[in-house]
Structure formats: structure tokens, C-alpha cells
Specification:
The protein contains eight helices and 17 strands. By secondary structure, it is α/β, with parallel strands linked by helices. It folds into three domains: about 110 residues, Rossmann fold (3-Layer(aba) Sandwich); about 160 residues, 3-Layer(aba) Sandwich (Rossmann fold), CATH 3.40.50; about 60 residues, no CATH class. It has a six-stranded parallel sheet with strand order 7-17-16-8-15-14, with helices on both faces. Strands 10-11-12 form a three-stranded antiparallel sheet, with no helix packed on it.
Length: about 350
């Protein structure tokens, strides 16, 4: 479902299948995409690996389609043509007589219902490979904490312990940018999008306001457009604010932030950096919650588990469970025991 997972999958598949493998995703140039497409069309490559659009690859004599993390909403394309990659996989397999494997630790409710009704066959993995144990999970009620900092004392101590042991940490905050809004303290008005009329996110790295719906942006105003006041308050913190806090708390730690605002260089270097243990703390949004397999990660911290729970969406509870379960699974994936700390007000 995510381009960020492609380097890891490519690393493993390339070792086994070599030149039979074709890669397809949106960050390829037109010429690279054409070359891969032609190799599949003429049968030179027999395996297509890629994100959502790879489901349309011209694989010859198709026999198997594997949809990894089938519950992911990123399989749905919101622009024309609108489609769900998982559903297209099922229809294409029916038309071409192929098998489909839908893989997920947290299957979507519709797929789970299809299993219960007998439409799908259910296969369970009842334990981790090589009998590695699941991480211990600790819930921190922030209502009981004296501090109002983003990183609680317990989580900060747990991070410091891992850094001393030369182990790695993954921190999850499912909101990008620095803060969710800027509000004038004098007149109370929000800096809003001229197109959508909703509050805009403050991105400190570029010093701009950005709308996360239509994508419009402009420089951060120095004074309120309504009353010319210079004083503002800032909304709920995003990954940029968490990154700033981490650099203050752990100035010697090597920190990488990975979200859709990060450069493509970050996305490509993340896998190698984590694998070679050149990164101590990986901070990110839902891009880091699934599929990543790093044996030296022994702590996963969820900065605010309530973000996705408070979204006005009928699937918010389901998606929160999926996100938390998926990111918790990044911890303790080898001999070292793992721990998960969930910070919440709920």
C-alpha cells in the first residue's frame, strides 16, 4: 500500500527472483515505468511488485495476486478513475482464473465478514515467525500526568534507556505539519483556506500555511489578516513539533522524520538507515505503521493515540485499532524483547 515499503520488499524479492521482478509505483519516471511495463508485456518479467496502480500491470498468464495489508485505505484512489486496488484485484483474479491472497494482521470488517459468511477462506498465523514473542503494551493515561509535555516522563525514560542500549525507537504521531491551526488571540479568527474555508495547518520547516484538503498554501502571516494583531495560539501538534521536542530532549540522537511532507530522499534512505542502524529514532505518520521489519527496534511510542479516534468518520474506531495494532507490531521482531507505550487522554 505504501511506496515507503517498496525498498524493503524489493530487497527481499530481488534476492530470490532477480531479473524476473518488475517494479511499479508513482515515483518512477515515465521512461522507467514504460520499461517495466514492456518487460511484463513481453513476458521478460513474471512478477510485478508495486503500490496501488500495480494491479493493472500486464502480467502474462496471471496465476496469483497478493494484496498485502488489505485493510489499508490507501488502496482507494480518490481521483478519477476512482477504484479500490483490493477490489480490483479480486475482480481481475475472477476474470483471469487466478488466486488472491489478502494479507493483514487487522483485516477490514468487510473482509472479515466475507470470511465468516464463507465467501473467503480464512488462514490464521497464530504466532510470530521463529516463535518471537509479542511486545508488552503499556497504556499511559495523560490525564494522570503532571506534565503537559508531548513526550511524557515515562516515555522519555523508555527512549533514553533504548538509546543507552544502542537500540532503535519508532514514534508514531498521526498528524503531519507543526500544528493543526493558527488562531489570533485578539479576535479569535483562524487562518483559513480561501478555497475550502477550513483551518490551515502550520508547517514550520517551510514557514507556510497549507490546506490538507486542496493543497493550497501561502507564507505564514506575521499579523492577523482581520485585526492586525501579532499574537497567535497554535493548535494540536504534528510530527514537526514532536521532532523539535525530541531534538531538545535527546540532542545526541539521530532522528529521522518520515511523512508525506518529507523529501523523497528521506523516504528512500529510511530503510537503509534503519537497517544499518544509522537512525536512532524514526518518527512518522501512518507511513511507518505497517510492514517495516527492523530487528533492533525494541520500543514503539504512540505520542497521541486519540487523534484518529476523534475524526468524524464511521470507521474511526476500526482504523484506530488497525493503526495502533500495526505500529505496535514493529517492536520486538527478533530476539530482543519489545515494548509499546501508548499515550492517551481517552
Amino acid at each position: 500500500p505504501e511506496i515507503a515499503l517498496t525498498p524493503q520488499m524489493l530487497d527481499r524479492f530481488d534476492a530470490s527472483f532477480g531479473e524476473q521482478l518488475a517494479i511499479l509505483h508513482s515515483q518512477l519516471s515515465d521512461s522507467e515505468r514504460y520499461t517495466q511495463w514492456q518487460k511484463l508485456q513481453n513476458g521478460q518479467c513474471r512478477i510485478a511488485l508495486g503500490a496501488r496502480s500495480a494491479i493493472f500491470a500486464p502480467v502474462q498468464n496471471l496465476g496469483l495476486i497478493i494484496v498485502d495489508e488489505e485493510h489499508e485505505q490507501s488502496y482507494k484512489q480518490d481521483s478519477q478513475p476512482r477504484y479500490n486496488g483490493r477490489d480490483v484485484a479480486i475482480v481481475r483474479a475472477q476474470q483471469q482464473g487466478a488466486q488472491v491472497i489478502l494479507g493483514s494482521a487487522t483485516p477490514s470488517l468487510e473482509s472479515w465478514n466475507n470470511c465468516l459468511s464463507g465467501k473467503y477462506k480464512l488462514h490464521k498465523l497464530l504466532q510470530r515467525p521463529l516463535n518471537f514473542t509479542l511486545p508488552t503494551v503499556r497504556i499511559l493515561n495523560l490525564c494522570d500526568c503532571d506534565s503537559t509535555e508531548l513526550i511524557s516522563d515515562d516515555l522519555a525514560k523508555a527512549i533514553a534507556l533504548r538509546l543507552d542500549r544502542k537500540e532503535q525507537v519508532i514514534l508514531f504521531q498521526n498528524r503531519r505539519g507543526y500544528s493543526s491551526f493558527m488562531q489570533c488571540l485578539k479576535c479569535g479568527k483562524l487562518i483559513s483556506c480561501p478555497n475550502c474555508e477550513i483551518s490551515m495547518y502550520y508547517h514550520r520547516d517551510r514557514e507556510e500555511m497549507q490546506c490538507h484538503y486542496c493543497g493550497s498554501f501561502f507564507p505564514v502571516p506575521r499579523r492577523c489578516p482581520s485585526c492586525n494583531s501579532f499574537t497567535f495560539s497554535y493548535g494540536s501538534p504534528g510530527t514537526q513539533k514532536v521532532e523539535q521536542t525530541l531534538k531538545i530532549l535527546f540532542p545526541m540522537a539521530r532522528i529521522l522524520r518520515l511523512d508525506s511532507d518529507s523529501s523523497r530522499i528521506n523516504q528512500k534512505s529510511m530503510y537503509q538507515g534503519m537497517k544499518k542502524q544509522e537512525i536512532d529514532i524514526l518518527l512518522g505518520t501512518q507511513m511507518i505503521t505497517k510492514g517495516l521489519d527492523f530487528p533492533n527496534v525494541t520500543l514503539v511510542g504512540i505520542v497521541n493515540a486519540d487523534i484518529s479516534l476523534n475524526i468524524p468518520d464511521f470507521r474511526s474506531a476500526e482504523r484506530t485499532f488497525q493503526l495502533l495494532t500495526q505500529v505496535a507490531g514493529r517492536s520486538g521482531r527478533a530476539e530482543k524483547d519489545g515494548e509499546v507505550i501508548i499515550q492517551t487522554y481517552n
